[in-house]
């Protein structure tokens, strides 16, 4: 999905006269959504597939939760880094960015809710 | 008056890191909502700008400290497996809860939800703190950015609230105990 657009709408001027595009904010918002969404997906997946749970056990005393939490954090930070570099000076379609981020966030919350996760797994 | 090491660390995890994080998030939510209705964004002095940054850094630090101590220190004590044949499960909270149908729900719903949803809060609040700092003076001109930040902050507040509530209730039903005993005051046995 390409969220960047060429027009200057959404840009503001700082007291120093520099334009402050919404790209850096969009990168932070979207990547946070990605992190939350991936967290929900992995929470369900690790519960449903034992080999995956074993694979995500990075630290034995904590069990699969160590990987279920670490992988989304890593993906969140990598996504943020990449998007921040690409959108540093750009103005992005923030409405689309927000909608995508909210969808991922809602997805993440829903998938962490055990009754919903059990329903998906047919338990 | 005594407390076990595990109980003390659980207390620090929940009552220091978790509860103070929740209060800090609430404060920022109020500020974000309030700032949507001001005529002019307040220009800060260097000192007050530093204090604001310190507040945000502490808030984010508390959030990460809460989830990291929870997952890597307290949770291993909670989920430890008792040796075969052991009848006294006092040091194995998960197994105390799962041993009865009337308390199993605290684990199956409470802990299963808490251990995952809690991570959403520091991720969201790290983003919120970054955007709030970067767009402090121009947030009025980016209303959709403000909306996103407010939504994420509210969700973080809810997620931290769920984690905190279930943490307190779980610890009430099956407290994390064990380790060396710390004598706080009064007579020791």
Task: Characterise this structure.
The complex is a heterodimer of chains A (about 120) and B (about 190). Helix content of chain A is about 65%, strand content about 5%. In chain A, the strands form 2 sheets. In chain A, strands 1-4 form a two-stranded antiparallel ribbon. A two-stranded antiparallel ribbon of chain A has the order 2-3. Chain A contains 5 helices and 4 strands. The radius of gyration of chain A is 18 Å and the shape is elongated. Helix content of chain B is about 70%, strand content about 5%. Chain B has 6 helices and 2 strands. In chain B, α2 packs antiparallel against α5 and α4 runs antiparallel to α6. The chains are: A mainly alpha (about 120), B mainly alpha (about 190). At the A-B interface, α1, α3 and α4 of A face α2, α4, α5 and α6 of B.
Which descriptors would you attach to this protein?
heterodimer; A: 123 residues; mainly alpha; two-stranded antiparallel ribbon; 4 strands; 7% strand; B: 189 residues; 3% strand
Give the overall shape of chain A.
elongated
- Span between N and C termini of chain A? 35 Å
The description of the largest β-sheet of chain A is: 2 strands, antiparallel
Order of helices and strands of chain B: EHHHHHHE
So how many helices of chain A? 5
Structural class of chain A: mainly alpha
Cα separation of the termini of chain B? 10 Å
Helix-strand category of chain B = mainly alpha
Average pLDDT for all residues of chain B: 94
Count of the domains of chain A: 1
| Biggest β-sheet: strands ordered side by side in the sheet of chain B | 1-2
Strand order of the largest sheet of chain A: 1-4
CA radius of gyration of chain A: 18 Å
Share of residues in strands of chain B: under 5%
The whole-number mean of residue pLDDT values of chain A reads 89
Unreliable residue stretches of chain A:
5-10, 12-17
């Amino acid at each position: 999905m390409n969220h960047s657009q060429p027009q200057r709408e959404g840009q503001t001027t700082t007291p120093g006269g520099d334009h402050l595009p919404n790209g850096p904010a969009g990168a932070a918002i979207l990547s946070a959504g990605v992190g939350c969404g991936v967290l929900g997906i992995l929470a369900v997946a690790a519960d449903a597939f034992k080999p995956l749970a074993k694979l995500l056990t990075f630290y034995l005393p904590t069990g699969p939760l160590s990987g279920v939490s670490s992988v989304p954090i890593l993906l969140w930070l990598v996504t943020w880094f990449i998007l921040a570099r690409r959108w540093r000076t750009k103005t992005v379609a923030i409405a689309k960015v927000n909608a995508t981020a909210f969808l991922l966030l809602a997805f993440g919350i829903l998938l962490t809710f055990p009754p919903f996760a059990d329903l998906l797994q047919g338990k | 008056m005594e407390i076990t090491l595990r109980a003390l660390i659980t207390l620090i995890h929940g009552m220091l890191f978790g509860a103070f994080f929740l209060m800090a998030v609430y404060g920022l939510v109020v500020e974000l909502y309030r700032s949507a209705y001001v005529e002019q964004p307040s220009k800060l002095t260097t000192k007050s700008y530093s204090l604001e940054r310190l507040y945000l850094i502490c808030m984010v630090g508390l959030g990460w400290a809460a989830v990291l101590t929870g997952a890597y220190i307290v949770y291993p004590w909670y989920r430890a497996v008792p040796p075969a044949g052991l009848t006294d499960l006092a040091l194995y909270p998960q197994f105390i809860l799962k041993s009865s149908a009337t308390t199993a729900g605290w684990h199956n719903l409470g802990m299963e939800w808490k251990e995952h949803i809690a991570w959403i809060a520091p991720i969201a609040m790290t983003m919120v703190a970054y955007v709030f700092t970067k767009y402090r003076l121009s947030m009025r001109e980016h209303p959709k950015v403000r909306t996103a930040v407010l939504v994420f902050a509210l969700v973080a507040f809810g997620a931290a609230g769920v984690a905190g509530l279930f943490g307190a209730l779980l610890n009430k039903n099956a407290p994390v105990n064990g380790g060396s005993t710390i004598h706080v005051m009064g007579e020791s046995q």
